[in-house]
């Protein structure tokens, strides 16, 4: 019977505590739920854009790109740009979905070689550049990464597959 007397003492103490602190406990839980709900509403209406980003590669260099990353989010590869091919320019492959945020972007890419370039003595090289990350607006979930000659990189957000640096269907009219 000692166990049940101890159990009754603990039960009575818990009941007295709940009678005294119950309103505070439920009020605190309600405050936490309301604060979280308020934050969700703020983030969905006025907060910064977040969520998954699709990386789209555009290459205008004469060497293949084995892969690249923007702030650690991996992108696809691209073949060497051929000036004689009118269809060889434009959007390349896409990768989905990673989270890219911040004020700066660290772009790392690996250059490969064509057979002729390899025979001429070129080998794989890794390049890196840190640059400002353009401001992302609501609905812009595609980050276009343009690789240009001279180790230049352009970054641009869009809400569709067309880069802000290219003519899209709506820009051709």
UniProtKB/TrEMBL annotation:
Give UniProt keywords alphabetically.
Answer: Membrane, Transmembrane, Transmembrane helix
Task: Fetch the InterPro entries from UniProt.
Answer: DUF3304
Asked if Membrane is a keyword of the record, the answer is yes
Q: Where are the transmembrane segments?
A: 24-42
Which superkingdom, per the lineage?
Bacteria
**What is the protein's given name?**
DUF3304 domain-containing protein
